[in-house]
Amino acid sequence: MKIERIELLHLRMPLLHPFVTSIGSLMEKDFLIIKMFSGGHVGYGESVAMPNPGYSEETTGTSVHIIEEFLIPLLFNSTINHPDDVSNIFAPIRRNNMAKAALEGAVWDLYSKKNGVSLAHALGGTRKSIDVGVSIGIEKSLDELLLKIERYLADGYKKIKVKIKPGYDLEPLAKIREKFGFGIPLMADANSAYSLQDLTHLKKLDAFKLMMIEQPLAFDDMIDHAVLQKELSTPICLDESIHSAEDARKAIELGSCRIINLKIGRVGGLTEAKKIHDLCDNYNVPVWCGGMLEAGVGRAHNIAITSLANFTIAGDTSASDRYWKEDIIQPEVIMSAPGKIAVPTKPGIGYELNEQVIEKYLLGKKTFTNN
Prior knowledge:
The chain is an alpha/beta fold. The chain has 13 helices and 15 strands. The strands form four sheets. It has a seven-stranded parallel beta sheet with strand order 5-6-7-8-9-10-11. A four-stranded antiparallel beta sheet has the order 3-2-1-15, with helices on both faces. The protein has a two-stranded antiparallel ribbon with strand order 4-13.
């Protein structure tokens, strides 16, 4: 498969509502879209890097640099027989996983379209629909938090994830359990806001019978998480600590977690995500697909990977209108039934770009030709 041309689009879209975590607050999403051309087909990818290096060391700006100066030249100078080849092509470049995943995702979409199959099918997915949950940021008031949860439960979402941090944890969780009981699937995401010095406090979370607590300790830690997991009955889920299948293996064997959040961008693409999925399946460790406030292209890739068998926990891939007034794809992602999204069966990601919306939020575009 020869890649003839690549277009790199830089967009900025306002979120419907501010999204607040222990890391900070987002009012808009600054992101990249990849268009990859070959033999009359176009593949789409999306970079999930943020404008600031809060979640990871990558930013939108560093992704542009790595994509332009290193990754595109490597792709243009290589033979691609299958999307799995891209991991090896990019191997000389360390980390920069979100930049790699944006291009690799476009290769996967292009490959699927050339072969007339859906991206989910190309990845080995088996589901016709996926269960979806919702991620709720730190709200201005507990009343607002409870109202949002009530609305999302009415919409049928299969999992409620709430952000927590020191000073905003026991009270909101207690209020949620008091109002909705222990029957709703509830988890807490700490985004690395705690340390082992908070062990006594964190043990109090067991009382809320959460599905999991996500990444309570340092973003690059596995050792302290293993210590904490031994003290908690609540499963720990690792997110920021896992960048590869090797990371996942070490975390599982150390006892650092019982669940893994799989984000395509964080691990460098769909090929590595599949490897982590398969490894976790062998260890009987469930996985679920986390969200990075993706626009429609990234959302479509999340739907495809979640169709694999070991994604047994509802992910964060909610409908487009959960975050956006208008999305960059058509049709937009909608729930096919309460708490479910249908897995597209059309070739590739199953969605087309909405060029009018893209033009509205476009900051810049660069074109690269493989001569």
